[in-house]
Amino acid sequence: MKIICNATPLINFASINRLDLLKFLFVEMVIPQAVYSETVESGFPSSETIVKGIEAGWLKVKSVPEMPDSISLELDAGEREVIALALTEQKTRVVLDEKRARKVAQSLNLNVIGTLGILILAKQNQIIPKVKPLLDSMITEAQYWVNQSLYDNVLQAVSEDETEKLSPGVEDKNEGMRETPGF
To answer: How far lies 30's CA from each of 5, 33, 85, in Å?
Structure first.
């Protein structure tokens, strides 16, 4: 399966040195130029992992030929380009974490998966034995924000101990919560 990915999920997996999960799950992954700029050109600490995926050929960078008017200007450049590229290339699956971008993509009939959904998929496909250690690493290493309720829902979805709480310093807020279905 081919997929088009935004920066946040890419950064999350690269930050914990598990970009390989994306390689195992998806035949080809495409990132638009804006996502490349946000990740590699910005020089975030784990960008070399992304460069290695590009050099290996399973991660491709593509430019967006035209930005459809149907894509909200409220989204950031990477989110807009992910959605535009999916529409242009007629790829229906995108990787987006931000709630607003997910809603826009879904309104355009795109299938959306996020970082949490990829972790669940990796466990379901027996690529990883547990979700919790990787999710905890993303929270500490990539500063990935997940509220307590969503954290518990993800662990419950994969039959892991949902009673363990987030590490100290991680907030338990409901604002900005991503929709539970579809992770």
So the answer is: 6, 10, 9
User: 54 forms bridges with which residues in the sheet?
Assistant: none
Q: Outline where 89-166 has alpha helix (H).
A: 99-107, 115-124, 132-141, 148-157
Helix (H, G, I), strand (E, B) or coil at 156: helix
CA distance 148 to 162: 10
pTM: 0.85
**Tens digits of per-residue pLDDT, 5-56?**
999 999 999 999 999 999 999 988 999 999 999 999 988 888 999 999 999 9
- Measure the CA–CA gap between 126 and 21, rounded to whole angstroms: 11
Q: Which of 66, 103, 70 is nearest to 85 (CA)?
A: 66
CB 79, CB 48: distance < 8 Å: no
> Is 25:120 a contact under the CB 8 Å cutoff?
no
Structure tokens at 95: 């990787």
| 1 close to 91: Cβ distance less than 8 angstroms | no
Element (H, E) at 113: strand 111-113
